[in-house]
Amino acid sequence: MLKTLKTAIGLDPDASTDDDAVSAVEALVAGGKQLAALGADVRDALGLPPDAPGLACTGAIRAVRQAEAEARGHAAELAVLAAEATERAGVLEAELAASRAEAAQSAACEAVSRALLSGKITPAQQTWAMEYAGRDPEGFALFTSQAPASMPMPGPSALPRQTLPPRLTEAEALVNRLLGIMPRSR
Q: How many whole angstroms from its chain centre is CA 104?
């Protein structure tokens, strides 16, 4: 019987002593206790009762692996969505910057036109004023508020209009032709 036990625990029945067999059995018992403790820890980690069979543990582990695979899939989808959102945010930031630059340019043009019409700057200063108003709108506004009006530029309504001679009627044009008066080219 001892030879059978030695063979069952992996010892050479003829070469090993009885003490070797006892030590091997004790090691096996200690290993079994460690496995039992590990099994209890696994059941606890999986949220299973302490007396759950091994198949329940296996099923729970498979469910965890499945959930992990699904989570990886969702993470990949989220990464794609995040990349798309980042790209769209970059486009929107560029559009916003362009709109702000356009609005600033428009405001600078308007401020320079007002300053030019009010005589605060001369036509020769227009390029400089556009750069200044674009770079520092508040500074340009302060400059124009404190600058004396040298000579106001006439506004569009104050400019003299070019008057054209009235058109001749058909009868007047015929009389002029008969008298040799030719119309001037405009």
A: 24
pLDDT in tens, 154-180: 555 544 455 556 778 888 888 888 888
Task: Name the region of 180 (left: φ>0; alpha: ψ -120 to 50; beta: rest).
Answer: left
Is this prediction's pTM over 0.85? no
- Give the span between the Cα atoms of 151 and 122, in whole angstroms: 8
CB within 8 A of 2, min separation 6: which ones? 13, 18, 21
Map out the domains of the chain as residue ranges: 1-45
The angle formed by the CA atoms of residues 13, 35 and 49, to the nearest 5 degrees, is 145
DSSP 39-67: HHHHHHHTT--TT--HHHHHHHHHHHHHH
